[in-house]
Amino acid sequence: MIRTVVVDVDDTLCLTEAACFELENEALARIGRDPMSRAAHVATWGRPLHEAMPMRSPGLDLAAYLAVHHTLLREYAAAGRVDVVPQANLRTIDELNAAGREVMLLTSRTEAEMEHLTAPGHVLDGRLAAVYHAGNTRFGKPDPRAFDELLAETGRDPRECLYVGDSPTDAQAATGAGLRFVACMQSGLREPADFAPHPVDAFIDAFHDLAGAVTRLEDATPAPLR
After folding, report:
1. What UniProt keywords are attached to this protein's entry (predicted)?
2. What residues have CB less than 8 Å from 8, skipping those under 6 apart?
3. Average of pLDDT values for 194-217?
4. With contact defined as beta carbons under 8 Å apart, do 210 and 182 qualify?
């Protein structure tokens, strides 16, 4: 049985690349930097922000940038301009929970970048069994050890767990740790061929297809020998 469904945040739980491109360019403008190109943003999408921004804006004062970015992220989130979880995705989480599967998040974001999503009263409050981020994991994706804390704390066999994400680095981390992997193609930024180096158990067009995909994968799994 697939007991634990682990979900990526960016362009999986909610579509964020376009919103983050706007946010990050506004943060650059506030510290007097020229805007990055959309191509540069997409090419480095999926990397932790502190790794991506020096590539997106060479010569950047990273500490100054991150301070402004954090303020803007809170403003954008409060205004509903980023990290909006669609109702269809919330219903999918509810469907997974109703089927007896615990739902968790695992992201490369920092704790500060997640604080609005984990705040009491948020729409995700009460729907998630746990949230893993750069603040409570020792390793980040694509390192398979990104799942070390989750597996240790839940006591799950990796084959009882499934990770859903949007990027090849998600697939690399999950399958390297022994989890099943579902690729969410909703952002339109990836093609199935992008995942070719890594095993993918299923492709879904949108997050709201996830519950059905999990059931089909479970039904297709041979029963263990006795």
Report:
1. Hydrolase
2. 105, 106, 107, 163, 164, 165, 166, 167, 170, 184
3. 97
4. yes
- DSSP, collapsed to helix, strand or coil, labels residue 130 as strand
* Distance, CA of 47 to CA of 49 (rounded, Å): 6
| Cα–Cα separations (whole angstroms), residue 121 to 54, 57, 117, 127 | 35, 36, 10, 11
Task: Kindly tell me the sign of the dihedral angle through the C-alpha atoms of 67, 107, 191, 213.
Answer: negative
Q: Is the pLDDT of residue 223 over 60?
A: no
CB of 171 closer than 8 Å to CB of 179: no
Query: Residue 136 pLDDT > 80, yes or no?
Result: yes
How far separated are the first and last CA of the chain, in Å rounded? 16
CATH architecture of 4-15+83-220: 3-Layer(aba) Sandwich (3.40)
| Structure token digits, residue 156 | 């799950």
CA gap 140, 146 in Å, rounded: 5
What three-state secondary structure class fits 203? strand
Cα–Cα distance, 99 to 82 (Å, whole number): 29
The three-class DSSP label of residue 73 is helix
Position 222 scores a pLDDT of: 60
Which CATH class name applies to 17-78? mainly alpha
